Inverse folding.
């Protein structure tokens, strides 16, 4: 179902599945490419590397510049390759890794975007994983080049490497966020203790003044 065949009934031509994959690749890959270009070059109203690096630092990705460059190229490069249908396993894995990190940032806010949730990066990541595992279809450069960059072992290696790398990045970011939260709480307690000490000193001074007047 969904496949078109040549007139002699032999080799299949591009069919509905291939057109569907092309539409998914073009839309998801185009969005990823645009977001990557925002990070890397400041295009489409983005902040460029310096602005993205500062934002990365704020979100807990240290060092910010290196993470900004890695995320930008994973999105831009992965998105471009997905749209073209070239090296689908590597492209899908790279984009999925970037979206996994973005999902982790928004995880505590729930699913929906209106609450700052993770639905947008999760959806892009799922599309990237699907294309990377399924393949780009016949309307792709992978098909045109004989799938030299789209072998089963490549998919296994790419997604395994991405899982390890993304997991390490997310764990490091979570540790940074926890450390910052602990430091902020410690500062709050110290400031509260200082205020309490000042209040106690003022109260003692006031009582001493009252005692001297009597």
């Amino acid at each position: 179902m969904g496949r078109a065949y040549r007139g002699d009934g032999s080799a299949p031509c591009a069919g509905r599945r291939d057109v569907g994959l092309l539409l998914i690749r073009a839309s998801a890959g185009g969005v990823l490419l645009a977001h990557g270009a925002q990070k890397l070059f400041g295009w489409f109203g983005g902040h460029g590397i310096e602005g993205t690096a500062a934002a990365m630092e704020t979100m807990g990705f240290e060092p910010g510049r290196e993470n900004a460059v890695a995320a930008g190229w994973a999105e831009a490069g992965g998105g471009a390759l997905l749209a073209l249908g070239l090296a689908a396993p590597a492209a899908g894995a790279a984009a999925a890794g970037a979206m996994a990190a973005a999902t982790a940032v928004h995880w505590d806010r729930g699913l929906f975007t209106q609450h700052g949730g993770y639905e947008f990066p999760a959806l892009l990541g799922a599309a990237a994983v699907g294309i990377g595992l399924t393949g780009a279809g016949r309307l792709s450069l992978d098909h045109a080049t004989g799938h030299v960059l789209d072998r089963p072992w490549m998919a296994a290696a790419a997604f395994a490497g991405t899982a390890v790398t993304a997991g390490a990045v997310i764990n490091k970011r979570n540790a940074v966020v926890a450390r910052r939260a602990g430091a902020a709480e410690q500062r709050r307690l110290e400031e509260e203790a200082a205020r309490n000490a000042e209040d106690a000193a003022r109260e003692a001074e006031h009582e001493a003044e009252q005692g001297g007047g009597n």
Observations:
- The mean pLDDT is 91.
- Residues 16-213 form one domain.
- The two ends are 101 Å apart (CA to CA).
